[in-house]
């Protein structure tokens, strides 16, 4: 197993470390933002079927990439770390993606992406308790801006009375559930990576893929029991192509960048990086729907940008990893 990524992260100087971490966070956000389009590309499939397809592909690709170094990679994982991989895979991948897909199909891309943008508030508050973290009072402007953005999209999602009102409310609730699930993952994964100096960030991503793929296999009987398979051959090929594409772009490449970033930045700044996924998902969503943002969506977009920049400013001069 190579440990170079972890070593380089440790020896980087403060400013370079922060800049590299932010760049990795932006890259992960740009790749993860594409995930919000996947449910729209294969709307005839249920959220559970989408999750199974994506994570089976993720698992298979992860096994293939680990195969040449199987003994060294898998042999370095202790029992407690397998347990961590189990719950992190569930919270950050399987459960999260099912809830996310339901939210997108019921409430739309823009609503879901902006609700997920509320994640930094929870992660930052939790991270502010870490030793050496930026004090919460210095992060308060960023948290308030992020909270105002969430209020804007909440008003957008619940505003108006129509036949689709129930579906929009269901989508909003699913998005909130996805938010809670991914908050747990972001905090837990960041703290695991801080302890694991013998496993590289990339290998940790691949190991997560293996465990997630195993969870997807267990979900197949559940899907067959409750969800009918009434799709044409063309639809199945489309699902396969989307699943492989999302697995490579978001799960393999995006997760590797996120794990690298998690080792470079303190937890109070890690949470803010997920807002780049929100920004890119919004851009992709507006392009997909061939429309400009509403006033509330524009306000939320601006508040999210200000939230990230103010959080980065609060961390200026604190290059050490908390």
Please explain how this structure is put together.
This protein starts with a helix and ends in a 7-residue tail after the last helix. It has helices at residues 4-11, 14-32, 38-41, 47-66, 70-75, 79-107, 109-116, 119-127, 136-158, 165-195, 201-226, 233-264, 267-273, 275-289, 295-315. Helices cover 80% and strands 0% of the residues. Mean pLDDT is 81; it is low at 1-11. The chain is built from 15 helices and no strands. It has one domain (9-315).
Distinctive features:
single chain, 322 residues, mainly alpha, disordered N terminus
Order of helices and strands: HHHHHHHHHHHHHHH
Count of discrete domains: 1
Radius of gyration: 19 Å
Global morphology: globular
Put simply, the count of helices is: 15
Give the helix level as a range of percent. Answer: over 70%
Briefly, what is this?
This protein has 322 residues and is mainly α.
Helices and strands in order, then pairings?
Elements: H1 4-11, H2 14-32, H3 38-41, H4 47-66, H5 70-75, H6 79-107, H7 109-116, H8 119-127, H9 136-158, H10 165-195, H11 201-226, H12 233-264, H13 267-273, H14 275-289, H15 295-315
Helix pairs in contact: 2-12, 2-14, 4-6, 4-11, 4-12, 6-7, 6-10, 6-11, 7-10, 7-14, 8-9, 8-10, 8-13, 9-15, 11-12, 13-15, 14-15
